[in-house]
Design brief:
With 183 residues, the chain is of the alpha+beta class. The chain contains five helices and eight strands, in the order E-E-H-H-E-E-E-H-E-H-E-E-H.
Length: 183
């Protein structure tokens, strides 16, 4: 399996998230706007614990969360992650994202997600991806559908009802035939 620890898109650069990103991750975890659909704000200590889990995931599987930075300003703007989850069935891998609230509605989540999908299918060789969010998170659901995920079912995650979307690598390949960038 290939490990892609950095990537770039038109507007974003991404690197493997680590302890050097603690200030940014802690600020994102503390923002109630960002975490309104992610379980609520969390402490700096919880952010550090998350980064430690991210490192362990990367070390064990060769993929995990990337920190996204704006290529023009070099400031962090969010993260994209590929990680294992039981939500969606055994051996599922989730594609997830979180963008700083001040950068919402710029298409950054879609841009990052498209590259995450390409990496998951073409570089890592995964067969399918899942993504999920709270039922009322209309913005994330739009991103999910825009990048090719298809609604599957409602599931319980963290004690709350979520919508689960799924994308199969073969379906994604069929929609991207003849393109070089995946879309």
């Amino acid at each position: 399996m290939t490990s892609i620890q950095t990537f770039s898109t038109e507007r974003l650069h991404a690197h493997r998230g680590g302890i050097a990103d603690l200030d940014f991750v802690a600020a994102m975890f503390d923002d109630p706007r960002v975490n309104a659909t992610l379980g609520g704000p969390r402490t700096r200590e919880q952010a550090a614990e998350a980064i430690n889990r991210w490192d362990a995931h990367w070390d064990a599987l060769g993929f995990g969360p990337w920190i996204l930075t704006d290529r023009a300003t070099e400031h962090p703007v969010g993260w994209l992650l590929l990680h294992t989850t039981e939500t969606g069935g055994p051996d599922s891998v989730e594609l997830g994202w979180s963008i700083a609230a001040d950068r919402w509605r710029e298409g950054l989540a879609s841009e990052a997600a498209r590259e995450g999908i390409r990496i998951a299918f073409r570089e890592i060789g995964l067969g399918q991806l899942v993504t999920f969010t709270l039922v009322e998170n209309v913005a994330s659901r739009r991103v999910m559908e825009k990048v090719g995920f298809v609604y599957d079912t409602e599931v319980e995650h963290a004690g709350l009802t979520h919508v689960l979307y799924r994308l199969h690598g073969t379906a994604w390949e069929q929609t991207t035939m003849g393109t070089t960038d995946g879309y």
